[in-house]
Amino acid sequence: MKGAVLLAAFVAFNAAAAQAQAMNQGQMDRLDRDRNGAVDRSEYQAFMTSAFANLDRNKDGSLSREEVAQTLNAQQFTATDANGDGKITQQEFLNRVMADFEAADRSGDGSLQ
After folding, report:
1. Confidence class of residue 7 from pLDDT cuts 50, 70 and 90?
2. SS3 44
3. What whole-number distance in Å separates Cα of residue 22 and Cα of residue 86?
């Protein structure tokens, strides 16, 4: 499961629309809690909230560069650290991944298929 979380976080941070649309079926199945064949905004946010908790190894409520070194490169970290304090809060993380979700939602229907 940790691998899936890291992969999902990586996908989220690199979610150019084409990449998010190209999620493999296994990833979609893990995120699609209601099994309707699509991942809606609330399902994605719930999954990414859990991903944040798993990435936050020391449970201090933020992600350090060390905690995400295997997932984010320096440019991604800096782009997500909105206030530039050297750590990513849960809100900064969710703001970024949900913006990526919105960008990937080409149809604007609030879901990825």
Report:
1. very low
2. helix
3. 31
41 near 98, Cβ under 8 Å? yes
Structural tokens at position 24: 């493999």
- Cβ burial of 84 (10 Å; 0-12, 13-18, 19+) is exposed
Q: What six digits make up the tokens of 47?
A: 């999954």
Alpha carbon 54 to its chain's center: 12
Structure-block tokens of residue 99: 């913006």
Mean pLDDT along residues 35-56: 90
**CA atoms within 13 Å, Cβ hemisphere of 18:** 0
Dump pLDDT digits (tens) for 20-43: 344 566 677 778 788 888 889 999
The Cα-based distances of 101 to 15, 48, 64, 65 in angstroms read 7, 11, 23, 23
Q: What is the greatest pairwise CA distance in the chain?
A: 40
